[in-house]
Amino acid sequence: MRREAIIALSFIICHLPYSPARGQVNAGDSVMQHVRGNRLSVGGYGEVALSREFYSDHVNRYSSPQNYKDDPSHGRFDIPHAVIYLGYDFGRGWTLGTEVEFEHTGTGSAVENEADEAAEWELEQEKGGEVELEQLWINKRFSRAANVKIGHVIVPVGLNNAHHEPLNYFTVYRPEGENTILPSTWHDTGIAFWGHCGRFKYELQMVAGLNAMLFNRDKWIHHGAGSPFEFKPANQLGFAARADWFALSGLRVGLSGYYGHSAHNTYPNDLKGDGKPYDNVKGTVAIGSVDVTLNRWNWLVRGQADYGYVGDTEKLNTIKDAKAHASNSPVKSAMIGKNAVAVGIEAGYDVFSQIARLHRDEQQFYVFARYEYYDSYIPAKNKEMFDYTNVNRLAFGVNYHPVPGIVLKADYSLRKLKTPYNNEPSLNIGVAYEGFFL
């Protein structure tokens, strides 16, 4: 009898209703939240950013900072992300979710006949950017508490990866700390188990492992989830987990983490097992993160703290340095640090909440401030040679929502670096949208 009572109580708890506040939907299942009402769902998000950066953009500004202290400012116009969601409900608990992302307007090339070069045909690179398939999965729902998702999924480690749509942060660009040290948006192929239990949401994932040969000093493991090949090597596997607690109305607290080996996860597989000195190098990656969102009393507050570790860094740096000198090698030669950290908090108050007519009209005007500290390179020694990776950043600005789903942004950002490096102020203006159209 006791066993049946426990099972019944567990079922009741896991099926208790709750209503997450606006901005709490996890990015990995944002398509699924809207696919249930219609068999087909179409949506997406996008951003346009205009910036003036009042510091040098010279590639050597950190190696010789004194030479670039008085360089002129420069402007940048960009479309950081333009995303299309497509979802479909096949019925009987089977759903499809996809996300195609165009970064910096994608890539462009064209074949041209060059009259001034003896009428040669040439392949011209018209512009930069990337086109990526960030999600492509099939989900089977057994119950609210039990789902299995197989395919290309979002790895929800950290606040930025779990909630990376432009209405989920105040600044024109994504928060710098997590965007620097972690893959962003982190997506990989694997299998995920997830569900809701009362006020909790959990997710467990097994995905293809990271590649240590793509780590570097300025970005830590940021590039490690990518692959320069037509496929993703999976000689090593990675394991990610996330739990969100919707503690009160408008309050969400999240814990997430990752563990996996990153050495020998490239092509061709160089783990020979024949006694070579680096056969047993593992390159263990371990990351822990805590994040919180409070959307209540006309305040919107978000914060996160991430800390990470990479093992065998001295041996990995030796391997990377040797392999990076091979012709056309995709290996990044810059050293990687044993640890990295990113801490950030932002808070905004909706001024229009105090103006009845605008509040009824669902218009919002947030005045916000943000602070973050991050360091992508914390080695065992010789840190002072590359101390420009140690960054304190302040940002102040406004967000105006004329209607739900659209935001106009403006911020002034100051990236403070240690002496002798020069501080990096900028002024940024942007517009973004997010929503479902079908």
Could you explain the architecture of this structure?
With 438 residues, the protein is mainly β. Helices cover 10% and strands 48% of the residues. The protein is built from six helices and 19 strands. It has helices at residues 2-14, 30-35, 159-162, 176-181, 313-323, 356-360; strands spanning 40-53, 74-78, 81-91, 94-103, 108-114, 120-127, 130-143, 146-154, 187-197, 200-208, 237-248, 251-261, 284-296, 299-310, 339-350, 364-378, 390-401, 406-417, 424-436. The protein has a 16-stranded antiparallel barrel. A hairpin with a 4-residue loop joins strand 17 and strand 18 (406-417). The termini are far apart.
Strand content: over 45%
Q: Could you tell me the mean pLDDT?
A: 88
DSSP summary, beta strand count? 19
Q: Could you state the order of secondary-structure elements as H and E?
A: HHEEEEEEEEHHEEEEEEHEHEEEE
Q: How far is it from the N-terminal to the C-terminal residue, by CA?
A: 48 Å
Strand order of the largest sheet: 1-3-4-7-8-9-10-11-12-13-14-15-16-17-18-19
In DSSP terms, counting alpha (H) and pi (I) runs of 4 or more, how many helices?
6
Q: Biggest sheet, in brief?
A: 16 strands, antiparallel, barrel
The outline comes out as globular
Unreliable spans:
none
Broad structural category: mainly beta
Cα Rg: 23 Å
Q: What level of helicity do the residues show?
A: 10-25%
